Amino acid sequence: MAGSVVTRTSPTAVRLPEAGVDRAELPRVECPGKLAPKDARQLSKLFFDRLRELDEGTHEYQYARNTLIELNISLVNFAAGRFRNRSEPREDIVQVGTIGLIKAIDRFDLSREVEFTTFAIPYITGEIKRFFRDTSWAVHVPRRLQELRLELAKATEELAGRLDRAPTTDELAALLDLTPAEVTEGQLASNGYVAGSIDIPAGEEEGSGEGVLADRLGDLDPALEFVENLQSLKPLLAELAPRDRRILNMRFGAEMTQAEIGAELGISQMHVSRLLTRTLTRLRGQLLIQE
């Protein structure tokens, strides 16, 4: 592309389009996925602004859209990290999360005055959760038994049509050239595909007045994610300048207002606001890099 070139010379040094460059020419970004978060956000705004003026299907539109995906792929990695304990391969989770990122890019509007990160994360996590809901088994089942479940389902439907009744284990075994024991194993495995509802009555009879099963189950502690984020922040906080750490402590520890902090430090409330914004932006960016 004939525009200026954006290269990664250091984690924070990025050469953006120079004054006088035709606004219609977007910069050519080399290795956009390796840019520092601050640079990626700055470039994203430029590309979003231009994307809305381009005709869909043109080469320039595809370049802008694809570059935005690469600039923000760290958001997908961040969201996928929240599901690292799932049995599905991380590559599959990232691929599905990327679909959510693309949807967010197609629907984002700079005029909303909302950071793209804030806008995109719900789309990405929503797509990942939908993937788990639609494709995951309730319990881990070997691939062989997953395939056997499909074969049994087809055979059962075929024999039920012929016999006008539910087929027996022996009849299914004969049709699929399996032993009755293998058919039974496949039928048991099918129970792992759909979990029982937690809204069923907890008592043996529906009218027992025992409430539903969900009332007896524990839930995830909402503070767990907070603890995880806090542990990730500790080393990052230690790298801050003493004044920045003190301002954060006064604002979020002592819950002081910006005006009170300014009076304590002998600076204006506006200056406190700028320092807080700068520090929080830096911390968010470093957390994204960690993922």
TrEMBL record:
PANTHER family registered for this protein in UniProt: RNA POLYMERASE SIGMA-E FACTOR, SIGMA FACTOR F FLAGELLAR
Source organism of this protein record: Streptomyces fildesensis
Keyword set includes Transcription: yes
Protein keywords: DNA-binding, Sigma factor, Transcription, Transcription regulation
PROSITE patterns recorded: SIGMA70_1
Protein name: SigB/SigF/SigG family RNA polymerase sigma factor
Domain RNA polymerase sigma-70: 92-105
